[in-house]
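Q: Given only this backbone (110 positions), what sequence would you predict?
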């Protein structure tokens, strides 16, 4: 923990703590790019009129965004996923997916 080693510099691990904190930050940034790539695959399959594959990639992006607490990206992905589900006449699934997102991100369900 960087905070601990900042308060206790005599341990000699402050530089190492900063290094690992930076690596974690970089990894989280890379995860965001992976989520967006999965979303882009969903968009691509949507353009190619392959709704089944599009939904599959949107769900993968949504799941990874949820697991890594990328809330803003998740909201965008879920919006696109619900749009695709609606186009496929899967209205109940779209509504449930949106309600799950609202509940998990602290928004009120409607």
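A: Predicted residues:
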């Amino acid at each position: 923990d960087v905070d601990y080693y900042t308060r206790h510099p005599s341990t000699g691990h402050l530089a190492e703590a900063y290094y690992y904190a930076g690596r974690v930050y970089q990894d989280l940034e890379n995860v965001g790019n992976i989520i967006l790539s999965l979303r882009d695959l969903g968009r691509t399959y949507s353009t190619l009129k392959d709704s089944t594959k599009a939904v599959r990639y949107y769900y993968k992006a949504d799941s990874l965004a949820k697991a890594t607490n990328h809330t803003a990206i998740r909201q965008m992905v879920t919006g696109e996923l619900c749009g695709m589900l609606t186009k496929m006449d899967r209205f109940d699934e779209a509504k449930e997916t949106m309600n799950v997102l609202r509940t998990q991100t602290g928004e009120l369900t409607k």
